[in-house]
Amino acid sequence: MATPATPVETQYIDFGRAFQFFFEDPEWQKKTLMGSLFALLTMVIVGAPFLAGYGMAVLRRTARGDARPLPEWDDYGKFFMDGLQTIGLYLIHIFGALLIPGAIGCIAALVGGAAGGDAGGGLAGLGMMVAILLVILLVLPVLVYFPAAYIRMTVLERFSAGFEVRENIELIKRGPGNYFLALGIYLLTQVIAQFAFYLCILPGFPATFWAHVVSAWAMGEVARRDPVLGGQTGYAQVFA
Fold first, then answer.
1. How far apart, in whole angstroms, are the C-alpha atoms of residue 52 and residue 76?
2. Which pTM was predicted?
């Protein structure tokens, strides 16, 4: 009897599987219930580190090719501490991008206030317009770049990896197709989650958790398919 052929994995992330794997876990309902609770608790900040840490666990399990990437809710301490790293990494990047525009806006406001009159108001307005333009020019690239820093920090389990700019950019350059496909999955799931939330608040929290997990899975697929972080040999070398 002939052995069935093993499906050949494509080079790119399986877009359809992004919306299937979650429900293949036999305990997805129980895990979603807990995740929804922490999504609810993000409204008072408390749940954010746990949810972020859970996403990091999903990313790591996906990167090493686990068939069931959803972990159990059984290591709250690690979820919390890992989540703090993600939140810290994000805030540092965002505040860094806002530093120059914020300084320009403050200086313009101070100079305009000191000058007074129409001239002062015009100067302040011009300074604010420049600050807003710089926000667009600086923050948007940082938001596109940040997932690479997040992926490497998570997979390597080293906070400093999130600040290795050259290596993080190289991750994007090695697989731009998968990287931007993952960003597309993130944006699509966020839109779905927001739609569910505005449609009815109650299902909004499970949808938020689902979107967070699917996004983490997509980032994990970027790592798994990367020749340095993942693949059939790369991941084993990193974690050897």
1. 11
2. 0.83
